[in-house]
Amino acid sequence: MKIVFYGSGNMASAIFTGLIESNTVKGEDIYLTNRSDIEELKRLNSTLNTQYSYDDVELLSNADFVFLAVKPHDFDSLVERIQPHHNANNKFVSMMAGVPINQIKTKLQTSNPVARIMPNTNAHVQQSVTGISFSDNFEESDKQLLFDLLDAFGTSIEVEEDSLHDVTAITGSGPAFLYYMYEQYINAANQLGLSHEDTDIAVRKLIIGTARMLENSELSLDQLRENITSKGGTTKAGLDALAKHPIEEIFVDCLNEALNRSKELGK
Ligand SMILES: NC(=O)C1=CN([C@@H]2O[C@H](COP(=O)(O)OP(=O)(O)OC[C@H]3O[C@@H](n4cnc5c(N)ncnc54)[C@H](O)[C@@H]3O)[C@@H](O)[C@H]2O)C=CC1
Ligand SMILES: O=C(O)[C@@H]1CCC=N1
Description:
Rossmann fold, ProC C-terminal domain-like fold, 2 domains, 8 strands, 51% helix, elongated, binds 1,4-dihydronicotinamide adenine dinucleotide, binds (2S)-3,4-dihydro-2H-pyrrole-2-carboxylic acid
């Protein structure tokens, strides 16, 4: 299977690294290109054994899956490269936030199958949650091949195309929202007495340990929280302080703004 990535930035590299490190695809079957950073492509060739080229005929010839991994505002420059040279074998897999399948088909002037995915950078550690939608003409056997690829770097959920906006807000951007929250937690913790170094290590371990509990425990979130909260204790005091702030409202606002931006990006 020949897989091409147009774009080798943050999200694409998380995916092709996951595919190679899980032994799902060999580096030599993955072809990379980007706007102009040949040094980056050479570096990836020496570490992952991936191929690279700026020749679109070479890239697209016999390519089974062609990942569109550029920013939405770079799509037009990508169309100039792909449109004249694509062929019937190419199945397109776009990860561009917000850009609808019909717009991809129209701009590329193609009736080839198109899938849209919305992964996240947790693909680096094979933990992406990836939403996926397909054009009507995507063959079942090709869908299965693509699901197998997605499984190599996390879990996937098939959704209606319109729901990809929700997936983008909740899990596509989600790691950034959680990182931001953890940053605030570290900033606050730094105002207590531990050294900054100890605080940083302690909070990182706290986050990792809490995530492992979520993974391994059968208890609900609120039960896990209850198990830490002694009557009249420290946790109760901290939680009462938190409850004075509109935390749910803050996240409703955050997710709605991300979702609205996803809709705008497709216009
Ligand atoms: N970073 C993230 O967490 C996520 C990103 N996405 C989507 O993935 C896409 C890429 O995002 P990032 O990897 O973060 O961006 P990035 O800026 O890290 O990488 C973009 C890549 O596109 C390449 N590029 C630009 N114009 C090109 C052209 N004409 N031909 C070939 N390559 C070209 C650049 O050289 C670069 O390698 C975006 O559409 C974004 O919406 C989706 C989910 C999560
Ligand atoms: O910020 C963005 O637009 C992309 C989509 C999801 C994560 N990063």
